[in-house]
Amino acid sequence: MKLIMRIFAFALIATLQVLLISSCKDSKDDEDVLGTYEVAIQSNGFMPVNMTVPVNTTVTWTNKDASPHTVTSDDDLFDSGSINSGGTYKRQFTAAGTYTYHCNIHPDMIGTVIVQ
After folding, report:
1. N or C: which end of the chain has fewer CB within 10 A?
2. Measured CA angle at 74 (ends 72, 75), to 5 deg
């Protein structure tokens, strides 16, 4: 009976260790893989102007200016439409490549997302 109790106790401890190790996984691990990437639209510019992200990453643009802006790809792959002050636009990049974009309202506003 003592042997069975020891085996049971060992199995229980081993199971608890596995659960403890898996629950201690840093939550940033998933964030590093998937990423949280943000572009501020402010002072009539995109900040950062250029960013590199992994495939399947969602980029969020937030308009921090008082006037409306757009996030429009140079090759017509995406277009946010008008984003008012405080508004956001999100786009998931599912394929590697270089995506250049601009603001249709202010064409001198340009940016690039490089997806690797």
Report:
1. N
2. 110
pTM of the model: 0.71
Six token digits for residue 67: 């006037």
Tokens at residue 60, please?
Answer: 């969020």
* 3-state class (DSSP) for residue 107: coil
The answer to whether residues 46 and 61 touch, using CB atoms and an 8 Å cutoff, is yes
Bridging pattern class, strands 57-63 and 37-42: parallel
Mind listing the pLDDT tens digit for each residue in 84-100?
Answer: 999 999 999 999 999 99
To the nearest whole percent, how much of the chain has pLDDT over 90?
69
CA distance 82 to 60: 15
